[in-house]
Amino acid sequence: MVQIDLGQVSVRDANEQIRKWGAEGEDIEVLNPDARHHIGVGLIHPVRVHIQGSAGYFCAGLADQARFEIDNNVGWGLGDNMYAGMVTVRGNAGAIAGVAIRGAEIVVHGNVGSRAGQVMKAGTLCCVGNANFMAGYMMYGGRIIILGESGERVGEDMAAGDIFVGGAVRSLGSDAQLADIEESEVDDIRAFLDRHEIAYKGSFQKIENAGKRLRYATSEQQVRSIPFFTFSGTSDYWNPKVQEDVYVKSQIGRYRVRGYGGARTLPHLSDLAFKRDLSAAGTAGDPVAAVEMYTEIGGLNGARPLKLSMPVMIAPMSYGALSRSTKQAVGMASSMAGIAENTGEGGMSDAQRGAAEQLVFQCLGGRLGWNIHDMNRADGLEIYISQGAKPGFGGQLMAKKVTKELATIRGIPEGIDLRSPSRHPDILGADDLVIKVEEFREATGYRIPVSVKLGAGRVRDDIKIAFKDGFDFVELDGMQGSTGAGGAEVMEHVGVPTLAAITQAMEALEEVEGLDKIQLVLMGGIRDGIDAAKGLCLGADAVAMGTAVIIAGGCIACMQCHVGQCVTGIATQDPKHERRYNPVAEARNIHRYLEGVRWQIAALTQAMGYGSTTELGRDDLVALTRDAAEMTGLPYAPEYREREQALRGRVG
Amino acid sequence: MCGIAGVMFKHGATGLSTGQALIDMLDGCQHRGPDSTGFALYEDAEPGKLRLRFLVEEENGASDGVGHNSGVEGAIADIRTTLEDHGAEIVEDEHVGNSYRVVVRFSGDVQKLTYDMEHAATLISIGESLDIRKDVGGAHDVDDVFHVREVEGTHGLGHVRLATESEVKPEAAHPFWATGFTDIAIVHNGQITNYWKMRRRLERRGFEFHTDNDSELIAVYLADKLANEVPLEDALKTSIDDLDGTFSFLVSTKDEIGYAKDHLAAKPMIMYETDDLIAIASEEVSLNRLFPGRALDTREPPPGSYGTWSRLT
Fold it and tell me: A132, B302: Cβ pair inside 8 Å?
């Protein structure tokens, strides 16, 4: 038994000591906690931590195996994302107690705040007092026991799991219903209560999912693929895609969900041109050998940076939207090219981790597959706020793709139309976000860079918040980004184009004097090395590519990613279809493509007279259209159009 | 994007000053808002006297063209002239930090005075008891300039803010006062989404706003009710339904302190009460700053709730 006095040491030092003593199997007493945040986060050893007083936010967060006992109250996010282990709180808990737990036993002897057990997957959360509103909000599994009153809208949008209430049920949430309780369930609860020495002899009411909203009433039929050129043709009015949309909606009676991004014509990187005459690009020796392209991302605050052989990364794409083999191929290609891959939503598989030498692990609101062990083996952590293709919306994964294996890694029921939460349980503003970032840093010992992915919306404000909340880098995603499944109208009509996004972001950073203090990775429709070089000119430290990488690896751009029967074996979870995908061969194709991107960036940089990609700047660009000039503030110079077309012909 | 704190010593401050208590609480939650910090401090009123505080920094206040004279000295001269024109007799004044503090003897129409003053300078606080001190920086930075800890006081509010506007400006810092009314201050965490609708409704009735900050709206909304002799508790009750959005806010008047919290409870609030004191903050860590090493019997107000406390002396 060791003692740590928080009156004497910082939480950061205390957590280091807790982990160290934990690894040695030593129990720990924490004195004078005084409601400080993040006590014991990331502890993964089966030791006992006794906190003599109140703890703040995320007490026992991201822990596994450990047993915590807190003598008084705890703040928001008690036991966040805990796996095995146990927490006993003698006082009250704030909002989202037991958020996203995947197996722990959590007992709060007082009351719990609102949204207890939000997005929990497994384990038991027990509240001896009263719960506040929306207990069990969007829970995917596990058990909540409330001995007092349930609070309003209990079980709101729950997908699975059980809620047992001893006191009055104030009101039921949407898609929740009262259900008959089985004797064995009551026996289990009694055993649980006995084990935790809770005297309760009353009866229970059981609340479960009513099953009315787990799947879309009508699934979308597969339609004949319209060639992308026709699809994004010049007519905005009655082109074949518009007709198809009308027809499909007449059959399903709701918004369409499809893959890929918007097809509407928007100002983009191809509406910019390089100011210098680059007709000699690529003609002088080996540009790749001549130009410095090595880029480190994420190390400005002391974390171990991503080490990129060129300022390019793979954009986040989920295992779920994409097949296991595809994620593997992309990971292998990223390693061959010496760049970083990103898990996207839905957890990290061993195959992915093994394939990608550098892997960023993405955390979304549903915490589907998020866990401390994969955090510890990641090379970067990323908090997803939103996505360029569908800012403000969560992911969609249709039932066909929610296989047993996929459901297991995500901790959700199999075969539901998964509509991921559009927001995080514990990030409702910049003030909560800073505490969340700190939780990740504390849990991983400040080793791993933490980034935020922002779908361009209120770019200026969001970028400033990212800077002030201390992120190591931002992944800024413009409207030209794609998705595995999203509402068609949203993709076409909601968002901020990539050009406007990067311009506003750089202006915002300049205003707060943050240009050298946070790095920015631009994504959203980066198609090749020419686009990439323009993105770097506009101020990005690196760019990320998603769709282009998938196409390089065999995608035929039929835009049916959501259906789950992808003929190339990319956007599917069906082994029958996945069998068609050859990860080793496709990894080589993707790698060849990435090497082409490298050559393009190098050739352009060299032809501009620079020795390093860091020398690229806004002064190197002009705008070919008035819209692009307006968005970027670059000089309007349509006379450069021919030269730009010739350049594409040469190095494109 | 902020942290809030409030304290009231029911029988007057004992041992701890109002200023020191608020500094400690805000320092405890400075992570919620590193850019600016503000205090609304209440002291016993002197009958017939009003305390006013103006922002007079070079880049703010009267010097940016709304007054006649330029520079801080000019701004102060403009303020003095306007006050005297309204029959306010200056009995005490001081230029400290970004602000100019004046105590006047005044018995006229306060609303008219404040609206006219606002047209001449940036007035950030007015009251018989109230004094708002706010600036960029942390709780200790503001204390260094404004000597907050020396204010014994009876009750007060505090606020830390994370700003997203281009410059971090003191006038955008909280607490806010209710333009046109005395002794009402507010600190707010959250966002009022029907801001323009509510503001236009109040503007149609002749009220003026001097910022685009939604927290000023809450202050004016409540002040309007209080001026019509609606008890603070009832005004807070209706605010929960009239205001849309996410909010946890604290309000104080000459003798009362109150809170309201929206139905979704998206913004935290926690309180600790004894026979002598009520302390309210965004996070328990702030409350523990007042009572280090103690396990406090705190209470989290439920969603859609409100409450008030009065001074007992």
Answer: yes
Pairing of strands A473-477, A450-455: parallel
Q: Which helix (H) or strand (E) holds A587?
A: helix A583-607
- Amino acid letter, A186: V
Task: Determine the 3-state secondary structure of B272 from DSSP.
Answer: strand
In 3D space, the residue among A330, A329, A324 whose CA is nearest the CA of residue A349 turns out to be A324
pLDDT, position B313: 63
| Residue B123 DSSP one-character state | E
Contacts of B236 (CB under 8 A, 6+ apart): B222, B251, B258, B259, B260, B306, B307, B308
**Cis peptide bond N-terminal to B175, omega within 30:** yes
Strands (E), A11-113: 28-31, 48-51, 67-70, 86-89, 102-108
Residues of B in contact with A430 (CB under 8 A): 1, 162, 164
CB contact (8 A) between residue B300 and residue A92 = yes
Contact of A40 with A17, CB cutoff 8 Å: no
Determine the Cα–Cα distance for residues A30 and A108; give it in Å rounded to an integer: 19
Catalytic pick among B2, B40, B52, B123: B2
**Cα A239 to Cα B283: distance, rounded to the nearest angstrom:** 56
pLDDT tens for residues A467-503?
Answer: 999 999 999 999 999 998 888 889 988 999 999 999 9
Name which of B57, B211, B72 is nearest B80 in CA terms. B72
CB-based burial, B61-86: b 16+ in 10 Å, e otherwise: bbbeeebeeeebeebbebbeebbeeb
Which member of A34, A91, A429 has the closest CB to residue B285? Answer: A34
**A238 CB neighbour count, 10 Å cutoff:** 9
Rounded-to-integer distance, Cα A92 and Cα A97, Å: 10
Residues 6+ apart with CB under 8 A from A410: A320, A346, A347, A366, A368, A369, A418
Contacts of B114 (CB under 8 A, 6+ apart): B123, B126, B179, B180, B181
The ipTM, to two decimals, is 0.91
Pairwise CB contact (< 8 Å): A72 & B246: no
Would an 8 Å CB–CB cutoff place A431 in contact with chain B? Answer: yes
C-alpha distances (whole Å) from A602 to each of A270, A275, A279, A285, A532 are 18, 17, 14, 11, 11
Which of A431, A436, A442 to mutate against chain B (most B CBs within 10 Å)? A431
What's the Rg (C-alpha) of chain B? 18
Dihedral angle of Cα A480, A482, A486, A490, to the nearest 10 degrees = 0
Reported as a single tens digit per residue, the pLDDT across A106-152 is: 999 999 999 999 999 999 999 999 999 999 999 999 999 999 999 99
Residue A571's pLDDT is what? Answer: 94
Extended strands (E) in A327-480? 341-342, 359-363, 380-384, 396-397, 418-419, 450-455, 473-477
Tell me the sheet residues that pair with B271. Answer: B280, B299
Residues 93-122 of A with CB under 8 A from B: 94-95, 111, 113-114
**The dihedral sign for the CA sequence A198, A201, A202, A204:** positive
Burial level of B117, CB count in 10 A (0-12/13-18/19+)?
buried
Angle at B225 (CA atoms; ends B221, B226), nearest 5 degrees: 115
